[in-house]
Amino acid sequence: MAASGAGAVIAALIFGGRQQWHKRGLLAYGGVLISGMALLIMPFVSWAPALIGLMVIEGFGIMIFGLIWETSLQELVPEEAFGRVASLDMLGSFALLPLGYVVVGWLATVIGGKITIITLAILVLITIGMALSVPSIRRFD
């Protein structure tokens, strides 16, 4: 898990100071795509250095999405509504994590850890494909 954090720090250092984002929609969901691909490959790799590298890539991709998401919220949400919107964003993002952990843990117990990772990574990739099929997301700059 530290490798994921390292990837996130690398992405934050590279992209965090950007004043302008171009093709935000493609870049954000491209980051999640990178993360999903890394997760999909993990169950097929047993060499520890490769797994560490995949976790770095996973963290890097998720951080790109997170940076663009937070920047976009700050730019697009009116100041008088930002507190409420940010609160709902945090509620949806963090309050539901324990529920996700329970569901994923249960699923891994029922069908196995590798199958769970593969299934959920494929679900991420399908979701990204669906999101990128929306023209306004692809055009979001």
Number of domains: 1
* Secondary-structure-derived class: mainly alpha
Q: How confident is the prediction overall: mean pLDDT? A: 95
CA-based gyration radius: 16 Å
Distance between the termini: 32 Å
Low-confidence stretches: none
| Gross geometry | globular
Helical run tally: 7
Estimate the helix proportion, in percent: over 70%
| Portion in strands | under 5%
- For the secondary structure, the number of strands is 0
- Helices and strands, in N-to-C order? HHHHHHH
**How does the major sheet shape up?**
none
Topology:
Layout: H1 2-15, H2 24-41, H3 48-76, H4 79-95, H5 97-111, H6 113-132, H7 135-139
Describe the structure.
- With 141 residues, the chain is mainly alpha-helical.
- It has one domain (2-139).
- 84% of the residues lie in helices and 0% in strands.
- It contains 7 helices and no strands.
- The chain has helices spanning 2-15, 24-41, 48-76, 79-95, 97-111, 113-132, 135-139.
- Helix 5 crosses helix 6.
- The longest helix is centred in the middle third of the chain and has 29 residues, at 48-76.
- The chain is globular.
List keywords for this structure.
141 residues, globular, 84% helix, mainly alpha
Summarize the structure.
By secondary structure, the protein is mainly α. The chain contains seven helices and no strands.
